UniProtKB/TrEMBL annotation:
CDD domains documented for this protein: PTS-HPr_like
SUPFAM superfamilies: HPr-like
Molecular-function annotations in GO: kinase activity
Keywords from the named record: Cytoplasm, Kinase, Phosphotransferase system, Transferase
A single cellular component GO annotation: cytoplasm
Species name: Amycolatopsis lurida NRRL 2430
InterPro entries reported for this sequence: HPr (IPR050399), HPr-like (IPR000032), HPr-like_sf (IPR035895), PTS_HPr_His_P_site (IPR001020)
Record GO biological process: phosphoenolpyruvate-dependent sugar phosphotransferase system
Protein function: General (non sugar-specific) component of the phosphoenolpyruvate-dependent sugar phosphotransferase system (sugar PTS). This major carbohydrate active-transport system catalyzes the phosphorylation of incoming sugar substrates concomitantly with their translocation across the cell membrane. The phosphoryl group from phosphoenolpyruvate (PEP) is transferred to the phosphoryl carrier protein HPr by enzyme I. Phospho-HPr then transfers it to the PTS EIIA domain.
Main localization (coarse): cytoplasm
Domain HPr: 1-88
Protein name: Phosphocarrier protein HPr
Length: 88
């Protein structure tokens, strides 16, 4: 199962607009994408509510993972979003 560790770049963390952007992109992937804070339980990245309850703030490290055909590309796509300041 591919996974990638990424630092949250948005100043507000994965909250509000950044969470909506990430959730929309994750839901559009051909596989289920999960995200977890380091040491925490993974949640479905395609849900804004899940992303907001994750409470991942600016500078926090998160782990993005997926399984199945196209998982590596899905992880890369979501990791790139999380590593970008989406609130800029």
């Amino acid at each position: 199962m591919p996974e990638k560790r990424v630092t949250v770049a948005s100043k507000v963390g994965l909250h509000a607009r950044p969470a909506a952007t990430v959730a929309k992109a994750a839901a559009a992937q051909p596989v289920a994408v999960h995200i977890a804070k380091a040491g925490g339980d993974p949640v479905a990245a395609g849900s804004v509510l899940n992303l907001m309850t994750l409470a991942a703030g600016f500078g926090d490290e998160v782990i993005i993972s997926a399984e199945g055909e196209g998982a590596e590309a899905a992880v890369d796509a979501i990791a790139e979003l999380v590593a970008t300041d989406l609130d800029a």
